[in-house]
Amino acid sequence: MSLRLAARFARRELRGGLHGFRIFLACLTLGVAAIAAVGSVRSGIEAGLEREGAALLGGDAEMRFTYRFANDAERTWMKDVATAISETVDFRSMAVVDRNGETERGLTQVKAVDAAYPLVGTPRLEPAMPLAEAFAGRDGRPGGVMDRILIDRLGLNIGDGFRLGTQEFILMATLVHEPDGAAEGFGLGPRTLVATAGLRNSGLLAPGTLFDTKYRLLLPSGSDLDSLSAEARARFEGSGLRWTDARNGAPGLSEFVERLGSFLVLVGLSGLAVGGVGVAAAVRSYLAGKTGVIATLRTLGADRSTIFQTYFIQIGVLSVLGILMGVALGGLAPVLLAPLIEARLPIPAAFSVYPAPLAEAAIYGLLTAFIFTLWPLARTEEVRAATLFRDALSGTRMLPPLRYLLAIGLGLALLVGVAILFSGTARLTLWTTGGLAFSLVLLAISAFGIRALSRRFSQTARGRPALRWALSAISGPREGAASVVLSLGLGLSVLAAVGQIDGNLRTAISGNLPEIAPSYFFVDIQQDQIDGFTGRLAEDPAVSRVETAPMLRGVVTRINGKPARDVAGDHWVVQGDRGLTYARDLPENTRLTAGTWWPADYDGPPQISFAQEEADEMGLSLGDTLTVNILGRDIQATITSFREVDFSTAGLGFVLTMNPAALAGAPHSFISTVYAEDAAEARVLRDLANTYPNITAIRVRDAIDRVSEVLAGLAAATSYGAAATLLTGFLVLIGAAAAGEQSRTYEAALLKTLGAARGRILSSFALRAAILGAAAGAVALAAGIAGGWAVSHFVLDTRFSIIWPSALGIVFGGVLATLLAGLAFAWRPLATPPARVLRDRE
């Protein structure tokens, strides 16, 4: 028979409406909509970042230096290519307030600016005033503006005084909006904005202190950013210059958005996989209800391929309908909710209908529908006409013919390949795919195991009829145990994995630190202050340990004479500047893993001791040379040893340590970690800050809280994605419960005819739902813990421990979800008169 005839049959089938395909369409629509919405939001943010690139950056281009200001040659080049230049200085410090004999201190991220700032955009102050007026101050003291959170923390009012270093300032206004704030990246403290000239007598910008200078440039219209970037890097090669331009005004933010979006798309794919289970169950249930139609077609001479083509076309049309609804929902939702989303975003966004993410979601939907519908469709070819009149699919073999298995495998390979292409993260995609495959296999095996165990224990449940009926029903083919365990179990697995990952991240950041972490980090300790600093702490019995080290920052520019990025790729050590130190002797509690330490009096060619783990990741070996740019000076050194560096202790740890002679004469300061009793922390900080007002103290607990805030936002985003996956699983669960309503109606009729009370029958229905939910939750718990361990161990490289509250909540959620769905579809079978049901079955 021809394909045209199959199309005609499919068209007639479609005239029957969507009966039997509501869950099918809901699962497909929700899965595609989630991916389309995530992609649309990401595209909107990326478009906003691109559109506002100059405003975010504060100019058309930026030249950035560490520890120093631009030299004369660099300033001359900037004046030649730019129409306007603005210089900013960024560093951490302590804002100090003296009030009624008491002193309040707060860590702040200071930005000192010149009169040209900002070149693009306008800061918003409260009360409203020009920035120049705010900086003018009064009573002979320069002015400054602060974030509201810092003002509240220090108990300040407009007009009050505060101190940075040794310089007194007047708080003139609250900083409501910093136009280039998004480009500054993550900071440990709220922002304080002052004029650079106002810091002249503060003692905070001495040689060796930690600060960055940024030169924002306005360029003539039509300037070629590519050639200007290449010219600047070539002209000032080895100076430590870092170039950014308006094409990517906030590179760290763009990278974060891209990675988070990719991760959420993969979470959405997990939801689509859950929906795929529902799609397969819906197709199987629909075909089972088409016994008479298919049998009639076979009797009239329709061959196997015609029947397959008929329902393949029908389901294909419905799949396209579900995908279109999902694309429309996912594309329009961000546009309709744009005001709400933009209010929650600290960055610009331009929400619109973007074709690329919608096409991406549609491709995901098509491949998922193909993979999950082909299996049940293929099995119809193996069913004889006589069997179809009795039971649509139960008599077929478990696996479809080989050609269909190959087609399903090809579709799965295409889906994984497309996910890698679109997400740009092959490793994460493969981990996600492997986790989903592992979970599906585990859940499928568990579903068969649950049926087998139920069949066995139903024989031993004599004297407890409700339990025996529940176990007998679960062991039968009509209860849909596989659909319940697969759909709900996979949704719960994703949620369990996200919960375990989030919990272990939080534990890694904060949970284990109080016992091992220092009380404070002190930075910017000058060389003439270090002896007095350590002497004061040595006399304090409340201080248990003090670690100090010289602190410099440098950029690894070349490895073995080649550009560092060409050798080490995007490894974090070669991204931006890194902290480094020097040491004459091997530090205590430090173990060399390879090579030898330099002699105490060594003054030969520069040598480096490198962290072993990072060296392995970058492919470094003993004898390799590194070129490190420090304050514009290139130092080429040879790696002569590797050592263990444990950053998890929150103590001092440097990837690069050099011999002292290699850094002789380089201006630098010291960094220190202080371990003190909790009750003495405030006193230690007060004494040191009063004696050395230029130093900056970072309380470890405050830093942890700041990082935890970022993690909370990330956890919320991933939890929303996992919740969408779970919602899809619940829809599939409802579909499975609805599909089994007819069999429960017949079962209730038989039991009532034999004298069973409605309460006992309802108890049986509730027991089977609870057993299936507990089974799905338990298996999901195992899969989620395994997935969380794998991601924590291999991707995040953090320690793993089971977060039991989250884990037990998963099992309880599984029981509750199946119980609610089961009971929702139990009332009608109980209310149906037995006589009518039994007559219909005759």
TrEMBL record:
It is a multi-pass membrane protein. The keyword Transmembrane applies. Residues 267-379, 723-833 form the ABC3 transporter permease C-terminal domain. It holds the Pfam family FtsX. Keywords: Cell membrane, Membrane, Transmembrane, Transmembrane helix. InterPro entries: ABC3_permease_C, Membrane_comp_ABC_pdt. It is found in: Cell membrane. Its main location: membrane. The chain crosses the membrane at residues 21-41, 263-287, 308-341, 361-378, 404-422, 428-450, 765-790, 802-827. The keyword Protein biosynthesis does not apply. This is FtsX-like permease family protein.
